[in-house]
Amino acid sequence: xxxxxxxxxxxxxxxxxxxxxxxxxxxxxxxxxxxxxxxxxxxxxxxxxxxxxxxxxxxxxxxxxxxxxxxxxxxxxxxxxxxxxxxxxxxxxxxxxxxxxxxxxxxxxxxxxxxxxxxxxxxxxxxxxxxxxxxxxxxxxxxxxxxxxxxxxxxxxxxxxxxxxxxxxxxxxxxxxxxxxxxxxxxxxxxxxxxxxxxxxxxxxxxxxxxxxxxxxxxxxxxxxx
Length: 226
Known about the structure:
By secondary structure, the chain is of the alpha/beta class. It has seven helices and ten strands. A six-stranded mixed beta sheet has the order 6-7-8-3-9-10. A four-stranded antiparallel beta sheet has the order 2-1-4-5, with helices on one face.
């Protein structure tokens, strides 16, 4: 039997907020996500789902327990180390695309890769073109981001998240600002990335349609997985 490799392994996670008074947000949470899996995190407001996403994406390092990402222990790393780890290993897709409107699509895609500074610009440009082809925005690399539709902008945001060939893509309500047609495009893009390319994707969502098309749903209630 071939052992499935884990992209995320989080054990015994407890998280507290301290203002206005001490409050436990996450309670003994254990999460494993396999490589190539497309997972949704769901729960009512206040359930702890967004807090869990911030921990799993290393944006918050104040917690009890241990988290491994891509077989590397991230618990205990300092902020500078975590920032470097995120840039190399985690791509982000948010509810809003956060593209720089006055920059071209190519410039927007190159920013995270140039910051990582591991490959020559020509190689990065070639990867950007391939990603734009994959995400059906072919031939628009010199167009300003502000000239795209909302759905196209979100696809470019996905391409940007993929530029550094991350082990993990984290989504925060990635279809929350889209109409049903463009939301469907984003969902299908994620499904293809997971199934065809083995990309691991974890997304917080309120969208039942999104969740129904994931490989698995992690549901939280009152800080626990149910």
